Amino acid sequence: MEAEAAKYIGAGIACLGMAGAGIGLGHIFGNYLAGALRNPSAAQGQFSNLIFGFAVTEALGIFSFAVALILMFVV
């Protein structure tokens, strides 16, 4: 019984990575927009950094969700 409770606690802790992804997305796009408004000529050069940051942040949420599912149903 204690092992099952530990699985659920571990899955909940693993899901904290999804909260970090949600917070990070707002910062990524907000900072890009602020920089693009200050210097519009440099915005196109930073767009690839924006897409890369979005992909890494989104992957963090997906990986943490996958770890939570693995902890709940496989272990």
Question: Main attributes?
Answer:
75 residues, mainly alpha, F1FO ATP Synthase, 3 helices, 89% helix, rod-shaped
How does this structure look, described?
- This protein is mainly α.
- It has a single domain, classed as F1FO ATP Synthase (Up-down Bundle).
- It has helices spanning 2-14, 16-38, 43-73.
- The longest helix has 31 residues, at 43-73.
- The chain is rod-shaped.
- The model has no long low-confidence stretch (mean pLDDT 86).
- Pfam families: ATP-synt_C.
Q: How many helical stretches? A: 3
CATH architecture field: Up-down Bundle
The unreliable regions are: none
Distance between the termini: 14 Å
CATH names the topology as F1FO ATP Synthase
SSE order, one letter for each helix or strand: HHH
**Rg, nearest Å:** 17 Å
Question: Into how many domains do the coordinates divide?
Answer: 1
Mean pLDDT level: 86
Strand content: under 5%
Q: Assign the CATH superfamily.
A: F1F0 ATP synthase subunit C
Instruction: Report the sheet with the most strands, covering strand number, pairing sense and barrel closure.
Output: none
Secondary-structure class = mainly alpha
Helix content: over 70%
* Number of separate strands: 0
Shape: rod-shaped
CATH C-level label: Mainly Alpha
Site (Reversibly protonated during proton transport): 58
Family: Belongs to the ATPase C chain family.
Keywords: ATP synthesis, Cell membrane, CF(0), Hydrogen ion transport, Ion transport, Lipid-binding, Membrane, Transmembrane, Transmembrane helix, Transport
InterPro entries: ATP_synth_F0_csu (IPR000454), ATP_synth_F0_csu_sf (IPR038662), ATPase_proteolipid_c-like_dom (IPR002379), F/V-ATP_Csub_sf (IPR035921)
